[in-house]
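Throughout our pipeline, every protein is held as a single compact record rather than as scattered files. This encoding replaces a full spatial description with a residue-level series of whole-number codes. The remainder of this section carries one protein's record, kept here as part of the documentation.
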Amino acid sequence: SFTRHGLEEFISDCIILLDNRVRQQVSTRRIRVIKYRGSNHGTNEYPFVIDKDGLSVIPITSAGLDHPGTDERVSTGVPSLDKLFAGGGGGYTKGSTVLISGTAGTGKTSLAAAFAVESCKRGERCLYLSYEESPGQLIQNMRSIGFDLERWSKKGTLKIVSTRPAFFGLEMHLLDLYKILADFKPTSVVIDPLTSLIGQADASEIKSMLTRMIDALKSKGITGVFTSLVSSTAQNDTSGEIGVSSLIDTWIIVRELEEDQGQKRTRGIYIVKSRGTGHSSDVQKMILSDDGIHLLPMEDGATAGADQKKKVGKGLVPTKLMQKSKGV
């Protein structure tokens, strides 16, 4: 029964069921229309929130597949990375979604910041959602490699929003994104890191949230750049996070490499996929310096470390060395 006082359900023309669930100390409200005589209605459960603007319902099935296509490009903020993409001056496709994944310390946030700064240089607005660093900390860290986020923040073209993912449910984070998109009207969005949100719910809820998030960006022609933290045992894994890889247009992996027989640590970067765009499949050496990010061709002898090879079952072997081993 849906009532507490003996009122029969068939007497009512409309029955709306409200529910409040707590998972991992985070409360989530849900609403479901059980029946509504003489009217079509959604039968699914929908998360909703109550805030200063009233009650906001977030439809689970709002994501559509009617996004317009384009061949316009936007720079990654790293000229040498732009060159790895074919056509139109290189770079990401405008209005697409980009995933940058890698282990800790490989330069994911740096690549995201480079894209944000380049967007601001074009006179466009960029929204930067940081789930692990405060605005001040992010600005200070990126200044060390030549990216002046504070300048663009003061100018009003860059908006940095920092919050702890565990403080709210996924629906609240999604609703906040909707509101900021409506108020700030950015042309590019950075979410750093996406994995902080992924850990807040089960697989089905995560897939639903990511689908709606990506739909919200694509429907407005916004270019989205997401970072993703992976474990050291899975840095070469291209199977993807929960439902993420299939939703992403461009996937870039940054990883650790070793030189000089393991005495020197360096970073490698390569493009796993880029829908509708030709791209290089070569692994490039990524250098972070005080004047930005630079990509260089790999040197002979740069490989994954011995421990990494044992863990992931594969290492980077230069083409010339492979040819020699085969007697070519």
In short: Residues 12-57 form one domain. The longest strand covers residues 26-36.
